[in-house]
Amino acid sequence: MPPLSSLRPAIRAAGRLSSVKGSESLLPKLHVPISAYVVDCAVYVDGKRLPGRWTHERALDEVRMRDNAFVWIGLHEPDEEQITGIADVFGLHELAVEDAVHAHQRPKLERYDDMLFMVLKTVCYTPQHLPEHEIVETGEVMVFLGPDFVITVRHGEHSSLSDVRAQLETDPEQLALGPAAVLHAIADHIVDAYLEVTEAIETDIEELETEVFEPRSAVDSEQIYVMKREVLELRRAVVPLGAPVRKLTEGYSSLVPHDVRSYFRDVDDHMVTVTERIAGFNELLTTLVDAALAKITMRQNNDMRKITAYAAMISVPTMIAGIYGMNFEFMPELHWRFGYPLVLLVIGFTCLGLFRVFRRNEWL
What we know:
Blueprint: H1 8-19, E1 38-45, E2 48-49, H2 56-63, E3 69-76, H3 80-90, H4 94-102, E4 108-112, E5 115-125, E6 136-145, E7 149-155, H5 162-169, H6 172-175, H7 179-213, H8 221-238, H9 242-249, H10 258-324, H11 339-360
Parallel strand pairs: 3-7
Antiparallel strand pairs: 1-2, 1-3, 4-5, 5-6, 6-7
Helix pairs in contact: 3-4, 7-8, 7-10, 8-10, 9-10, 10-11
């Protein structure tokens, strides 16, 4: 039988179908176990993971019988019913639980009695240069931090924390610092992703800059607007996180010991770097938009000068043909044998003269 985690998409689809009005008689409401949403549940003692598989109740009981131990539970997009079971056992605040279920929160840090609740936005760079596609995709990671537990709730497919857990488990000394060390590792991992995304965006902006200032290049101003939109999306995900990280470095809660605060200072430095890069991107893209519009305006002016020059040359034969098309009886050279060739020569020389004048003035 396949594990419940592999059946998550089918479970969600069935749940949506059962919630549709009038479908209750067709499909009974499914009771989805908590394990279907638990990515991992582990107990750590002195920085080392205890072997075996744990439920959240057994894990908490085991931790509270030991010293220097905590439990780390990872959840992926749980619904309200499933997370309520964990919230009751760990005493999570109902407002924080509601935020963790519904997601779409701004980065923030909140304190509830002896628990911290932190929301971090994750970002992922996808190099797609079509207006209908997103270049920067966002997700969310919510962290419940207590004296002897860490509960992470992820929203989004690109926000996996398995690498963070694996890296921490290779460093028992770091894990021995307690749940705050896990919070730092998650924040550091997410902020490092910010740096990677800003580097990728910087490369794209440099390409746009080269294209805009390249002589006689076709300027795609729409792509600049797409990039500006994605930079603003990145800014909304990154900039609000600066204040929560700074609070953790200043002793906002006793749940973050002094030894861990120094690590958060490094994260804060990276946040400052990312914020400065994003501000620079925004200014540069604004400059590129102005330059692209100026280049388009110059091209339109050149086109209008060419159109005006050709219209002036076409007006000469049009005017002469209009005059001789009036068919009056007494008109100059109307019945002369060489009148028609003379008119053609006048038209030709006049147009040639206008062409040379416009060419000399760089209108053509």
